[in-house]
């Protein structure tokens, strides 16, 4: 994420929505802070009030009581229509108006804001390019001429039209197939890297929440916040059985997916230069009671060869004449799941980690296991 | 468009659904029938060799005057119906007034359910001081308000609520959402209702002659009274052809005024 934060902080204070004739409030005394420039995902079962809570922010639903502060300003004191022009809103399937072209759909808010024609045309072109649709082809199309994924992209472009600091997204990718959905999710993350909006994203799909959220708010009935934390923490240490149930059986696997190799304690092995004496290396390995050494190339510090202790028994000459080449490495940005995948794919029991082309350490099955255990431990202590 | 349709990950070309609009050449069928029937009428009348008094009733200026009256009745009553039905239909689909909808529709139903001739005659009796033209207009309006009103309501109700919420959600005012989203999307159904209203008005305007408000109905009543079958038939056929023509114009409007992309 860039340092240039395009979003603003949102504070919900004691927010309550009570519908007449219903015993329990739909949203019951919700207080939370949404940090500027973060994607916060509201996740919870149907009827948990997650969508209602989101709609309270742009006042599509008027709260019964409580405060909404957007960038410190009281949202309830503004005119609702004007407030909403500066909060992007994306719904399932984009919510595009079928009788308007793509350009007209995107231009709605700029037109309300009375931008001049040239500025609107330029903005439409810019936004379409940003969401990966060629302006020359798509400006004059009607929504039904687009695929579901394309409609969704236009929906995002429309929400971003007047460059609002806040974006509300209500299960936007619910109606597209899994492959398109994954692609749209990746695109949203890439877009967010550039824009750093404050995004509130509603979904009932926990995996989507883990993938997109800087923070996840797990909501139960009445929009009660059961847990509000970073995905890794929720996965490592679910607050209660409700959250555990929501994560599902394979929480540990999901944790692998949100943890980066650079963030865990790596194993260290003996590292040697290519011209090191083989007998010397063998002795050293025997002393340390280790089986493997990594040969790093001179200067760059890149792992180039593996040698194992048995091979070096009675050997002489430079160590680079022995062992085999390093065929698989992983980067610090890889997830633990990718590391595991690399381990299973390669013949070796260990995979070297390379950050900026330099060797940093090793990942073994044991490393992964240790990492998960220590993440759980850390989360519990918090 | 429903979300289910939108979910289909296949791009399709915009083509108006065939059931809603039909092929372009279908629009030529009605004018062809009108021309053929018109020519047949002229030939038939000449062949029947009308007598002097019949001939007087069939003189072009006289027939054109009646046609003008008929169109006037139809046009004025339709304008009044639209002026009432569209705002009323919009109001009855807003939050808060929705509960009144069944009652209003009930009243409109009575207007159409009662025999047209009865409505006209009763109004003439009840309103003896009002000019026959306006009594006829009132009767026509009461009689034909239902299709326009009901279709306005149905048209607005079938607009996907998610689209209305999307409009409000991005900061469109309620009025702007109505004018830019709801009404355009309701247009095809509203036009169908207006077309029905128009055709009803053309037909029922034939009864205006009973209270002396003129129109092509005069040819029919004169034909009956004076046993001038040629005049009777000519009047009837002219009304039928007029109704067909108006219906055809309605079809054109439905085809070309529907919003693109839908």
From TrEMBL, chain A:
Q: Name one GO molecular function term.
A: ATP hydrolysis activity
Enzyme nomenclature, EC number: 7.6.2.9
Q: Which UniProt keywords apply?
A: ATP-binding, Nucleotide-binding, Repeat, Transport
Gene Ontology cellular-component terms listed:
membrane
Q: Name one Pfam family in it.
A: ABC_tran
For whether the record's keyword set contains Ion transport, the answer is no
Checking InterPro entries in the record gives:
AAA+_ATPase (IPR003593), ABC_transporter-like_ATP-bd (IPR003439), ABC_transporter-like_CS (IPR017871), CBS_dom_sf (IPR046342), Gly-betaine_transp_ATP-bd (IPR005892), P-loop_NTPase (IPR027417)
Domain ABC transporter stretches: 10-247
Its Gene Ontology biological processes? glycine betaine transport
Q: Looking at the keywords, is Nucleotide-binding present? A: yes
Family listed: Belongs to the ABC transporter superfamily.
Q: What is this protein called?
A: ABC-type quaternary amine transporter
UniProtKB/TrEMBL annotation, chain B:
Pfam families on file: BPD_transp_1
Q: Where is the ABC transmembrane type-1 domain?
A: 67-250
Keyword Phosphoprotein listed? The answer is no
Q: Which SUPFAM superfamilies match?
A: MetI-like
State the superkingdom: Bacteria
Membrane disposition: Multi-pass membrane protein
Q: Name one GO biological process term.
A: glycine betaine transport
GO CC terms for this protein?
plasma membrane
InterPro entries for this protein: ABC_transp_perm/SBD (IPR051204), MetI-like (IPR000515), MetI-like_sf (IPR035906)
Going by the UniProt record, its keywords in alphabetical order are:
Membrane, Transmembrane, Transmembrane helix, Transport
Residues passing through the membrane, by range:
27-48, 71-92, 99-125, 131-149, 198-217, 229-250
Localization terms from the record: Cell membrane; Membrane
Give the protein family. Belongs to the binding-protein-dependent transport system permease family.
Q: Which PANTHER family match?
A: GLYCINE BETAINE/L-PROLINE TRANSPORT SYSTEM PERMEASE PROTEIN PROW, OSMOPROTECTANT IMPORT PERMEASE PROTEIN OSMW
Q: What is this protein called?
A: Osmoprotectant transport system permease protein
Write down the species.
Phytomonospora endophytica
């Amino acid at each position: 994420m860039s340092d240039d934060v395009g979003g603003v902080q949102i504070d919900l204070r004691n927010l309550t929505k009570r519908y007449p004739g219903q015993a329990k409030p739909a949203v019951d005394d919700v207080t939370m802070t949404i940090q500027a420039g973060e994607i916060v995902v509201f996740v919870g079962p149907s009827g948990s009030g997650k969508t209602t809570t989101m709609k309270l922010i742009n006042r599509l639903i008027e709260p019964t009581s409580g405060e909404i502060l957007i960038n410190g300003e009281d949202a309830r004191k503004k005119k609702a229509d004007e407030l909403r022009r500066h909060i992007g809103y994306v719904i399932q399937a984009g919510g595009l108006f079928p009788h308007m072209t793509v350009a007209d759909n995107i231009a709605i808010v700029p037109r309300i804001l009375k931008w001049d024609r040239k500025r609107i045309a330029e903005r439409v072109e810019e936004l379409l390019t940003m969401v990966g649709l060629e302006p020359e082809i798509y400006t004059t199309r009607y929504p039904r001429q687009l695929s579901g994924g394309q409609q969704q992209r236009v929906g995002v472009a429309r929400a971003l039209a007047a460059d609002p600091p806040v974006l509300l997204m209500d299960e936007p990718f619910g109606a597209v197939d899994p492959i398109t959905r994954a692609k749209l999710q990746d695109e949203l993350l890439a877009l967010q890297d550039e824009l750093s909006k404050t995004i509130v994203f509603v979904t009932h799909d926990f995996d989507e929440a883990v993938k997109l959220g800087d923070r996840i708010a797990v909501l139960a009935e009445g929009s009660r916040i059961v847990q509000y934390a970073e995905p890794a923490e929720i996965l490592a240490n679910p607050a209660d059985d409700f959250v555990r149930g929501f994560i599902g059986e394979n929480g540990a696997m999901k944790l692998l997916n949100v943890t980066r190799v650079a963030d865990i304690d790596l194993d260290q092995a003996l590292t040697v230069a290519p011209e090191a004496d083989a007998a010397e290396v063998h002795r050293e390995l025997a002393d340390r009671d280790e089986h493997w050494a990594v040969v790093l190339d001179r200067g760059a510090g890149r792992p180039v060869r593996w040698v194992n202790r048995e091979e070096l028994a009675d050997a002489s000459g430079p160590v680079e004449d022995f062992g085999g080449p390093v065929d698989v490495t992983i980067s610090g940005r890889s997830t633990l799941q990718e590391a595991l995948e690399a381990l299973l794919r390669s013949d070796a029991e260990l995979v070297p980690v390379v950050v900026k082309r330099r060797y940093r350490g090793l990942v073994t099955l044991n490393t992964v296991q240790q990492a998960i255990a220590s993440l759980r431990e850390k989360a519990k202590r918090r | 468009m429903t979300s289910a349709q939108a979910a289909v990950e296949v791009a399709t070309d915009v083509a108006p659904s065939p059931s809603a609009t039909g092929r372009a050449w279908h629009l030529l069928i009605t004018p062809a029938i009108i021309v053929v029937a018109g020519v047949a009428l002229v030939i038939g009348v000449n062949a029947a060799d009308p007598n002097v008094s019949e001939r007087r009733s069939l003189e072009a200026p006289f027939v054109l005057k009646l046609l003008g009256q008929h169109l006037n009745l139809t046009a004025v009553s339709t304008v009044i119906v639209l002026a009432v039905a569209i705002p009323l239909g919009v109001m009855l689909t807003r939050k808060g007034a929705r509960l009144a909808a069944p009652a209003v529709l009930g009243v409109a139903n009575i207007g159409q359910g009662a025999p047209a001739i009865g409505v006209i005659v009763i109004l003439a009796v009840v309103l003896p001081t009002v000019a026959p033209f306006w009594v006829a207009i009132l009767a026509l309006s009461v009689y034909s308000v239902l299709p326009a009103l009901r279709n306005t309501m149905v048209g607005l109700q079938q607009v996907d609520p998610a689209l209305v919420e999307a409009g409000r959600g991005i900061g469109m005012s309620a009025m702007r959402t109505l004018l830019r989203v709801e009404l355009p999307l309701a247009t095809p159904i509203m036009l169908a209702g207006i077309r029905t209203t128009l055709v009803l008005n053309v037909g029922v305007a034939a009864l205006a002659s009973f209270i002396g408000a003129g129109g092509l109905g005069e040819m029919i009543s004169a034909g009956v009274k004076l046993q001038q079958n040629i005049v009777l038939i000519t009047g009837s056929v002219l009304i039928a052809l007029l109704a067909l023509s108006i219906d055809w114009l309605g079809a054109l409007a439905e085809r070309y005024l529907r919003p693109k992309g839908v």
